[in-house]
C-alpha cells in the first residue's frame, strides 16, 4: 500500500494488490472521515493502523463513493457511520452477499469480509457534513455506476471523484451519457487535487486536461463503434482501435488501461448493435 499526503490533514492510500484502488482519510479534531476502503482486508488494516498512529480521534464517518467491491469491502473493519447514495444501499442489500460469495470462491483472503450496509443515505442533491471546521459535500455523480458519489472538501479544494475519474473512463455497467453530465459538473468546481478511484492523484494543472480528454474519449469510442456497427463490421475489428487514438494513454494502471479500453469497446458494440436491431435507444 502506498500513502500520499495531498493536504495538511488529508492522506490518500493506494492499493498495491489491485488496480491501484484508492481510499482516503481526512483528519479533524472532531474525528476522522474515511472515503472508501481498499480491496483486501490486509490493506484496509494497514490503512487503519496508520490512522490510529496519526490521530487519537475516532473515525466518525466512512463515505462510499459507490458499491463496487474494491471500494466497499473494508467497511466492516471500521467504526463510524457509513454514508452513501441511496442506490448504493439498495444494490448492496439486493446483491451484496451473492457477489461477495462469488469473490470469496476466487480469493480466500476475503472469507472474513462481511457486507455492511450504509447507515445513512441521501437520494437527491447534495449532503454536507460539517466537522472540525471542514465542509465535506457529497454529490451524486453517476455514470460509472448509478450510485456514484463524489466528495468535495471546500477548504482544501480536494475532490474525491471515485471511479467517475480514472485514467480511462470505464462505462461497462454504467451510462456514458450520464457520465458526460457528471464530468461537466465536476469541471465547475475549484480543485487543487482530484483523487481518482484508481491511479495517481491529479494536481491542479492536470485536472482540466484529464476531464477534457475523458470527454473526448467517450465521444471518440462512440463515434468509432457507431461507424463500425452501421457498416456491419465484426466486433473483432475493434482490436485495431487503440486507446491512444481515442485521446488516452495505455501506460496507467500498470498497462491495464488498454484492457479497460477494449472492454468499453466490446460493451458499446453490443449495445449499439442491439439498438440497431430493435430501433430503441438504450441508455447505458
Features:
2 domains; seven-stranded mixed sheet; six-stranded mixed sheet; Metallo-beta-lactamase, Chain A; alpha/beta; globular
Task: Explain the overall architecture.
By secondary structure, the chain is of the alpha/beta class. Helix 4 (176-187) runs antiparallel to helix 5. Strand 8 (126-131) and strand 9 (134-140) form a beta hairpin. The protein has helices at residues 41-54, 69-72, 86-106, 176-187, 207-230, 257-278, and strands at 2-7, 10-14, 22-28, 31-35, 59-63, 81-85, 120-122, 126-131, 134-140, 149-153, 158-162, 193-196, 202-203. The chain folds into 2 domains: 2-203, Ribonuclease Z/Hydroxyacylglutathione hydrolase-like (Metallo-beta-lactamase, Chain A), CATH 3.60.15.10; 216-278.
Amino acid at each position: 500500500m502506498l500513502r500520499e499526503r495531498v493536504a495538511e490533514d488529508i492522506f490518500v492510500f493506494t492499493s498495491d494488490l489491485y488496480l491501484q484502488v484508492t481510499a482516503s482519510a481526512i483528519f479533524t479534531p472532531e474525528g476522522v472521515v474515511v472515503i472508501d476502503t481498499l480491496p483486501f482486508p490486509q490493506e484496509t488494516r494497514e490503512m487503519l493502523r496508520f490512522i490510529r498512529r496519526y490521530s487519537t480521534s475516532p473515525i466518525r464517518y466512512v463515505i462510499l463513493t459507490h458499491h463496487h467491491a474494491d471500494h466497499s469491502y473494508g467497511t466492516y473493519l471500521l467504526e463510524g457511520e457509513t454514508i452513501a447514495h441511496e442506490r448504493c444501499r439498495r444494490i448492496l442489500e439486493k446483491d451484496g452477499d451473492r457477489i461477495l460469495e462469488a469473490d470469496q470462491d476466487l480469493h480466500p483472503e476475503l472469507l472474513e469480509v462481511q457486507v455492511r450496509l450504509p447507515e445513512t443515505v441521501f437520494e437527491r442533491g447534495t449532503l454536507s457534513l460539517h466537522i472540525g471546521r471542514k465542509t465535506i459535500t457529497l454529490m451524486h455523480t453517476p455514470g460509472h455506476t448509478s450510485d456514484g458519489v463524489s466528495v468535495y472538501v471546500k477548504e482544501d479544494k480536494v475532490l474525491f471523484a471515485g471511479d467517475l475519474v480514472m485514467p480511462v473512463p470505464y462505462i461497462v455497467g454504467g451510462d456514458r451519457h450520464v457520465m458526460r453530465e457528471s464530468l461537466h459538473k465536476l469541471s465547475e468546481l475549484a480543485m487543487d487535487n482530484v483523487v481518482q478511484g484508481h491511479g495517481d492523484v491529479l494536481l491542479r494543472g492536470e485536472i482540466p486536461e484529464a476531464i477534457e480528454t475523458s470527454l473526448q474519449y467517450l465521444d471518440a469510442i462512440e463515434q468509432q463503434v457507431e461507424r463500425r456497427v452501421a457498416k456491419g463490421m465484426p466486433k473483432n475489428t475493434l482490436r485495431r482501435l487503440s486507446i491512444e487514438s481515442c485521446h488516452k494513454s495505455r501506460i496507467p494502471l500498470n498497462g491495464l488501461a488498454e484492457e479497460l479500453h477494449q472492454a468499453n469497446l466490446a460493451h458499446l458494440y453490443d449495445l449499439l448493435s442491439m439498438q440497431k436491431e430493435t430501433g430503441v435507444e438504450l441508455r447505458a
